Amino acid sequence: MNRRNLQKIEHFVSIDTLDKNYITELIHRALLYKAGSSYHFLEPKFVTTLFLEGSTRARYSFDMAQKKLGIKSLDFDVKSSQIENGETLYDTVLTLSALGVDAVVIRSYEEKYYEELINSQGITCSIINAGDGLGEHPIQTMTDLMTIYESFGTFEGIVIGIVGDMVHSRAAHSNMRALKRLGATLLFYGDATWTVDEFKQYGKYVTFEEVLETADVLMVHRMQTEAYHAGYSETEYFSKFGITKERYEKMKDTSIIMHPGPVKRNVELASELLECERSRITTQIQNGVYMNMAILESVLA
Ligand code: CP
Fold this sequence. Notes:
By secondary structure, the chain is an alpha/beta fold. It has helices at 20-34, 57-69, 89-99, 114-118, 138-152, 170-181, 208-214, 225-229, 234-241, 245-249, 281-300; strands at residues 46-51, 72-75, 103-108, 126-132, 159-163, 185-189, 203-205, 217-220, 256-258.
């Protein structure tokens, strides 16, 4: 297919390093892939996914994206690797790089784990961050941006409501940073103990009613284990922060619901809303494959 070259990026680790033009370019490329476009690398490319935390969506959407692009995937099984015997992440990635891997997609419980990898002289492969502790989840954010753009065609003036435990959600952190920069208005609702001054530069804390009645996009987040520590049972969480059928009725007819997954049905969201007409939760999963194709093309081409 005849098309402009996608901007090349060496590492894909933080939403803050991606400028507005690049974000727009990636969204359009992902939409092209979704419309059936394909891409073939001139040389063989080798990619490994190295997940130190559990994952279904991020890991397998990258697997799917690699297969669609004809990339040769190396299956890295943490449990049967020397990580189990104490080999560090740095030495593991150094080894994969020496083996000839072109990019490693990593999820770690450690915030900013990627810094020593991308600043290394010895590691020559690209790093794609699929989540770093409580830090960021830039690939989820790119998928979410694509999904919002697909529904509204713009970010300017779109009201985004973020509900639930946004403090312990890395996807919420990346999303608020990107969406503010792209011209969206952000409203937050969550437990008072999850109010963080840093977030006030991106949006404002309001009542649940205001979020429900004004949001174009309602971003619901996972009940993190910290919520249990805050003293909420699942039933209490649902009654205080959950998107019940009654709360859904208060939303605008044109609004959409998003959730990065995994969803706890009847805790964060009434079970029947997960697949309702205005839910984009499965669309986010589909879009993840196409966005990851665009990211891989940009990193490897
Ligand atoms: N959204 C997301 O990263 O989901 P997984 O934890 O299943 O990968």
